[in-house]
Amino acid sequence: MLFNSFIFRFSSVMKLKLCLSFLMFFVIHDVQSAKSQWMALVPSTIPAVQGSCVVIPCTYNYPRPSSKKIINSWLGFWKKGNKVLATSIQKWKLPVEYKKRTQFLAKLRTRNCTMLLDSVRSTDVGPFYFRIEMPQYKSFSYTQNSVSIDVIRNPPPPTLSVEVNDQVYATCSVFHSCPSIPPQFSWSHTGVIKSQSKKVNAWNWQTVSTLTFPPLATDFNKPLNCTVRHRGGKEAQSSIILLI
Ligand SMILES: *[C@@H]1O[C@H](CO)[C@@H](O)[C@H](O)[C@H]1NC(C)=O
Ligand SMILES: *[C@@H]1O[C@H](CO)[C@@H](O)[C@H](O)[C@H]1NC(C)=O
């Protein structure tokens, strides 16, 4: 009631402003409470070619300790069930299954829990989840925010297109999950080859290879092939007929 009579004295413009600032307060309050919950931000499923690598992007949050506790130690674990795949603890003995295939990519103090899994096996489907241990505070397993890997046994053919002017300009591209060792391209025709990668979203990259060459009459009505070889050796090919 006190609040109502308070508002009553304002002009309608002021009322609106007050309402807006109250709305803002709730919006900001909501964002902040989301930031201070036991929550990890990860994609639920990531496609990855078998044999290749996959970067699992991850950030995590925890409620602020109520007292003025100083947290200066964070121990991170990536797990599947009770098995540890990767950890920030250097001396930890990982199961043979995961040894030398996983890497912690980021510092835990920045709430980044990104992990890399290499030589993806058909059995690496997950679900995988992150666990944080803060000896001065609490520990938590983010089992509600788990990641599954959609292991692709036969990678799809690359996207191939060609433009013919004075030069033949061909473009071949694929999406992948392994930015550290991007796919390699090979072409059935010689020419100037350039390759470039870009990030599409948090877990997906695109690598594009272009081939440029001056065509001879004998090049026409013949297939031009682009072969992509993913990290780990899986290959896929696309073919296009060069038309005048
Ligand atoms: C987390 O760390 C990885 C690896 O260093 C980095 O690529 C990524 O951008 C970081 N994510 C955020 C949200 O800072
Ligand atoms: C290009 O691909 C076509 C169709 O798949 C195939 O018949 C041909 O042998 C390939 N050529 C080369 C040079 O790889």
From TrEMBL:
UniProt cross-references to PANTHER family, sorted A to Z: MYELIN-ASSOCIATED GLYCOPROTEIN-LIKE-RELATED, SI:CH211-171H4.5-RELATED
Cleavable signal peptide: 1-33
Keywords from the named record: Signal
UniProt-listed InterPro entries: Ig-like_dom (IPR007110), Ig-like_dom_sf (IPR036179), Ig-like_fold (IPR013783), Ig_sub (IPR003599)
SMART domains: IG
The keyword Signal is assigned to this record: yes
Cited SUPFAM superfamilies: Immunoglobulin (SSF48726)
Protein's name in the database: Ig-like domain-containing protein
Domain Ig-like residues, every copy: 135-241
Record carries keyword DNA repair: no
